[in-house]
Write a structure and sequence with these properties.
single chain; alpha/beta; Aldehyde Oxidoreductase, domain 3; TIM Barrel; 2 domains; six-stranded parallel β-sheet; four-stranded antiparallel β-sheet; 11 helices; 12 strands
Length: 286
């Protein structure tokens, strides 16, 4: 993956400007840019590493002459008191990039760590853990990358890459059948080939969506109980993919997976992760 893609670089530049503004008045007053330093990225709790490549981009955006050496890679399981990466170069520039780099790294590692917990919880079943669009504005690419580093899979990235007919669309259209038919007509007029998913709230809606099994790709079961999910999976009978969504926790995710669903979407992966504790330790180069 090209981490210097213009969109990613733009977000990193905006994040750096947010933090540094017109200059790091403290560092500029104390440390000359000529002073060389050594820094270590220290992991302070067990988890899954994600965002190390992004952190490198942050440091290199501030100073492309910094020497950044990765000891671990994104997706690696790490434990506290290990060093994930080191760098050498201008001590002042390392300090200017520190907080922005760690903000990306800590958040992404937190997402990857939480994702891995859910992935481990459903291990041995058919279910894949997937994310949602409940991400921090402008950080969706990074949030979804972290989910993949944690072993999950990504749902649609945005509103333009998959048709997802949700309850409000169904209400506005006047029913599932009308909503699906309008989407099919729109896709045909644009000669567009996108996957179609339909959200359902009960078994009656599942049955209605199944009338279009030949043209839709996935049915979402929104806030179904375990018995209802089992019945829905039996009804669908592998004709389309099945996604369970709503009120998923580490305590119940295994039971949901055992119903035979293909995907379990979890908004909490990206809307409320706990950041992994990671720090940067620096010293002047002798």
């Amino acid at each position: 993956m090209d981490f210097f893609d213009s969109r990613i670089s733009r977000v990193i530049e905006q994040a750096l400007f947010e933090d540094i503004g017109l200059g790091d008045v403290t560092t500029d007053a104390i440390i000359s840019e000529e002073v060389q330093g050594i820094a270590e990225i220290l992991i302070k709790e067990n988890g899954v590493l994600s965002g190390l490549d992004v952190a490198e981009c942050v440091f290199k955006t501030v100073d492309d002459e910094l020497i950044f050496k990765k000891i671990f890679s994104d997706g690696d399981i790490v434990s506290k008191r290990i060093v994930a990466a080191t760098m050498e170069g201008s001590l002042a520039n390392i300090l200017k990039a520190e907080r922005t780099a760690l903000n990306f790294l800590q958040r992404m590692s937190g997402i990857a760590t939480l994702t891995r917990k859910f992935v481990k919880a459903v291990e041995g079943t058919n279910a894949k853990i997937t994310d949602t669009r409940k991400t921090v504005p402008t950080l969706r690419f990074f949030d979804k990358l972290a989910v993949r580093d944690g072993g999950g899979v990504n749902h649609r990235f945005g509103l333009d890459d998959m048709v997802l007919i949700k309850d409000n669309h169904i209400t506005a259209a006047g029913g599932i059948a009308i909503a699906i038919e309008r989407c099919l007509k729109s896709l045909e007029s644009q000669n567009a080939k996108l996957k179609i998913e339909v959200e359902t709230k009960n078994l009656e809606e599942v049955r209605e969506a199944l009338l279009f099994a030949i043209v839709i790709d996935r049915i979402m079961l929104d806030n179904f109980s375990i018995p209802m999910t089992e019945e829905a999976v039996t009804l669908i009978n592998r004709n389309v993919e099945v996604e369970a969504s709503g009120n998923v926790s580490l305590e119940n995710v295994r039971a949901i997976a055992n119903t035979g669903v293909d995907f379990i979407s979890i908004g909490a992966l990206t809307h409320s992760p706990k950041a992994l504790d990671i720090s940067l330790d620096v010293s002047s180069k002798k």
